[in-house]
Amino acid sequence: MRIGSALIASVLAVTGLSLAASPASAQPSGLTFYSGAFTTEVANFPAAPIACAALPLTADSHIGWSGFRDVIFYRTTDCTGQATGVGTLRTYEAGRWLSFRAF
């Protein structure tokens, strides 16, 4: 019993150390859209889109993890009309905007 407990403790310690030592590339990057207020990832853009991109319909939050300065939302599907700058960390009502540009 005592040996089993020690073995389990050792495995957990080694597993914990390997998670803490994960390479930086395993961390989130790019621009990630979520549903459920940062709960479920619905899309990831590793690099800022130059052209207009469709906003996932269920997206209600996003994080610009790296390489982004701003995200601009539009109520149209083709990035025309009024532009709304929302930054790189935001929550919003799903379906409110239909397209975006990020830089």
Topology diagram in text:
Elements: H1 2-20, E1 31-35, E2 40-45, E3 53-54, E4 61-64, E5 71-74, E6 84-85, E7 89-91, E8 99-102
Antiparallel strand pairs: 1-2, 1-4, 3-8, 4-7, 5-6, 5-8
Description of the molecule:
The structure is a single chain. The protein has 103 residues and is of the alpha+beta class. It is 18% helix and 29% strand. It contains one helix and eight strands; from the N terminus they run H-E-E-E-E-E-E-E-E. The protein has one helix spanning 2-20, and strands spanning 31-35, 40-45, 53-54, 61-64, 71-74, 84-85, 89-91, 99-102. The strands form two sheets. It has a four-stranded antiparallel sheet, with no helix packed on it. It is globular, with a radius of gyration of 19 Å. The protein starts with a helix and ends with a strand. 12% of the residues are buried. This is Beta/Gamma crystallin.
Number of distinct helices: 1
**pLDDT averaged over residues:** 81
CA-based shape: globular
Low-confidence stretches: 3-22
> Strand content of the residues, in percent?
25-35%
Task: Estimate the helix proportion, in percent.
Answer: 10-25%
Order of strands, widest sheet: 2-1-4-7
Output the radius of gyration.
19 Å
* N- to C-terminal distance: 58 Å
What pattern of helices and strands is seen along the backbone? HEEEEEEEE
Oligomeric state of shown chains: single chain
List how many beta strands DSSP finds: 8
Sheet with the most strands, sense and barrel status: 4 strands, antiparallel
Helix/strand-derived class? alpha+beta
